[in-house]
Design goal:
The complex is a heterodimer of chains A (148) and B (454).
Chain A lengths: L1 H38 L4 H9 L1 H12 L5 E5 L4 H9 L4 E5 L5 H7 L4 E5 L8 E8 L6 E7 L1
Chain B lengths: L1 H23 L8 H26 L5 H18 L17 H23 L5 H17 L17 H13 L9 H22 L1 H12 L2 H7 L8 H21 L2 H14 L6 H19 L4 H6 L2 H14 L15 H15 L2 H4 L2 H11 L6 H23 L5 H8 L4 H15 L2 H19 L1
Helix pairs in contact in B: 1-2, 1-3, 2-6, 2-7, 4-7, 4-8, 5-6, 7-8, 7-9, 7-10, 7-20, 8-20, 10-11, 10-12, 11-14, 12-18, 15-19, 17-20, 18-20
Classes of the chains: A alpha/beta (148), B mainly alpha (454).
Chain lengths: 148, 454
């Protein structure tokens, strides 16, 4: 008797599963239509901006300002920048950090073609301000310094 | 558009390559064409990735011609040798005239269609794909070889099959297109569904197979990994390969054929090179094989099985030889505490009952333990052992290493074993429920649903 009841519960769960699956169809179809509407006509850059936000916009800015064989120091407190930079800036050699306190010491041993600071401004010996980025939608900014 | 067509052709070519090899060498002679087609994609992906890996190791150029030529020659050879038997080739036929089958087929096609479109409308966007899997594809394509000093830059030295297959797509395209490459994820979704369908259909019939395929293709987590947002990672491929290995394992238990074991051994080798976690899965599959060899006294099969471990050993030696792994672990505290055990358990259970991602899959699976006696049912014991051993391994990883937690990764880890759960439940339902009653009830349900739409 108990087993029969448990089997009935099992069957009910199975039917619930089928019903939920049927309900996901219009939900997903509608989402796809909305996705196509809001994504399809965007350029690749616009799509990436939509996915990664300002961060991508800034990386794209670095990409457009620096040659592929350059060696870049990137500072940002936002850890995501490192991941996105490594994906989009390759084959540039990158040194990505969340802590720029050792920059002066680092510059004694390492030579970077460019230094990029996100949301920070600094006077760096032997480097000149090369390009400035300002987000279109937020207060975030970035500065690229070039080796003199 | 041209990139999408070229990627689709590359995927079809890879599947055809796998199909030709399995058919020509009669590696899975008892299987129908549909099942062979479903596993073919995985064999093709593994072979192409291994080819790129070997080319890179011996310094051979990754040109389209050098990659495709050997496979074209092989396929031509197979074609010429089998030209007389092509007339015997059977294209699977299905009787889908009944209303319920038509409705289910329509639902399946609808779900697969939106997953396909979702794969195409966005470039790669999920963090792990950007940081690891597709990043390596892109870098290897730029460098035209496996860039050894980058192997540990992004992760713990993950194997390269998924990344190298992405590189192969870029080589075919002649440039990087990280939207089109996501079709490879859709292909894993499609071929997993096809294998589930063909295996269930062979055993239990068309309607039953369509029901479970429908449940699979509408599971939100598979929709996401197959196309929407989560595409481009290695979890769905690992789920596919685990499922292929299980199906071959169950057939090996019935047939004890050396050729089938060779095929299984190749798949185990590829599976072990999808993700680091895959090593535990392959071990869970290898143990029953050793038991079967011992039981049937086919000791020469042990030599065939040994091939499984060769590519995995080679990969471990290679990566340790060319780049010393950095020690990531000091960043994380590995303190085992009761609180951590409880939190892990809660996190894992929370994901099991996450209906939004899994629908009723895990709830029904765990509930089935209350009413199904798996004692003396070897097949069910094997499937459950693999599923539960993986859940236990993930639990151990979570409690022993604070670098991982269920909140951020259980959803992905369960993808590795979820196709097995679908197959397990298909068997269990069949044993428990009278199909005539089930068919009647489902027809009633569908007629009610269709009247709602009307």
């Amino acid at each position: 008797m108990k087993l029969l009841f448990m089997k009935k519960v099992f069957l009910s769960l199975f039917f619930l599963w089928i019903i939920l699956s049927i309900l996901t169809l219009p939900y997903n179809a509608l989402n796809t239509v909305l996705d196509i509407k809001s994504w399809f006509f965007l350029t690749d850059n616009q799509k990436r901006e939509k996915i990664f936000g300002d961060t991508y916009d800034y990386i794209y800015f670095i990409n457009s300002k620096t040659p592929k064989n350059s060696n870049i120091y990137i500072f940002s407190k936002d850890g995501k920048i490192g991941l996105i930079a490594r994906y989009f800036l390759y084959p540039r050699k990158l040194y990505v950090t969340k802590d720029d306190s050792n920059l002066i010491n680092l510059l004694k041993h390492e030579s970077f073609d460019y230094i990029s600071l996100y949301d920070k401004e600094k006077i760096i010996q032997n480097y000149k301000l090369f390009a400035k980025y300002q987000s279109k939608t937020t207060f975030h900014f970035g500065i690229i310094y070039k080796k003199i | 558009m041209i990139d999408i067509i070229l990627t689709s052709l590359a995927i079809s070519f890879v599947a055809l390559l796998g199909f030709s090899i399995i058919k020509y060498f009669s590696l899975w002679s008892e299987a129908d064409n549909l099942s062979i087609a479903a596993v073919s994609y995985g064999l093709g992906v593994g072979l192409i990735s291994m080819q790129l890996y070997i080319y890179s190791r011996i310094g051979l150029q990754w040109s389209r011609e050098l990659i495709m030529f050997p496979w074209f020659m092989l396929m031509l050879f197979v074609f010429i040798n089998n030209i007389h038997s092509l007339s015997k080739f059977k294209i699977p036929k299905f009787n889908i005239t009944s209303g319920i089958n038509l409705i289910l087929l329509f639902f399946i096609i609808a779900a697969a269609s939106y997953t396909f479109f979702e794969a195409l409308i966005r470039p790669v966007s999920v963090w792990d794909a950007v940081a690891i899997w597709m990043n390596k594809s892109k870098i290897f394509y730029f460098d035209q070889s496996i860039t050894t000093n980058l192997l540990y830059l992004f992760d713990f030295g993950y194997p390269l099959v998924v990344s190298l297959f992405g590189t192969f797509i870029y080589i075919i395209l002649g440039h990087i297109n990280d939207s089109a490459v996501l079709l490879t994820s859709f292909a894993f979704y499609f071929f997993t569904a096809l294998l589930l369908f063909s295996t269930i259909k062979k055993r239990f019939g068309l309607t039953y197979a369509l029901i479970f395929t429908f449940l699979f293709v509408t599971t939100q987590n598979f929709v996401r990994h197959g196309g929407r947002m989560e595409a481009g990672q290695a979890d769905l491929p690992l789920g596919y390969y685990t499922f292929v290995c299980l199906i071959l394992l169950l057939d090996y238990f019935k047939q004890n054929k050396a050729k089938l074991l060779s095929l299984l051994s190749i798949y185990l080798g590829i599976t072990g090179l999808i993700k680091s976690e895959a090593l535990f899965i392959t071990i869970a599959i290898v143990i029953p094989i050793i038991y079967q060899i011992y039981k049937t006294k086919h000791y020469n099969h042990l030599i065939i099985l040994f091939f499984w471990v060769l590519p995995i050993i080679d990969w471990q030696l290679y990566k340790n030889d060319i780049a010393k792994p950095p020690n990531f672990y000091p960043f994380y505290q590995n303190i085992l505490s009761w609180q951590r055990v409880v939190n892990t358990l809660l996190g894992m259970v929370k994901e099991f009952i996450n209906i939004k991602s899994w629908n009723m899959l895990w709830i029904v699976y765990f509930y089935s333990f209350l009413i199904v006696k798996i004692k003396n049912k070897k097949e069910l014991i094997i499937i459950n052992t693999i599923i539960l051993s993986q859940i236990f391994i993930y639990f151990l990883i979570y409690i022993l290493n604070s670098a991982f937690n269920p909140e951020s990764s259980a959803e992905r880890l369960y993808v590795h074993i979820a196709p097995l759960v679908f197959f397990y439940l298909a068997i269990v339902f069949w044993k428990l429920i009278d199909l005539k009653d089930l068919r009647k009830s489902i027809m009633l349900l569908f007629s009610k649903v269709s009247s709602l739409f009307n």
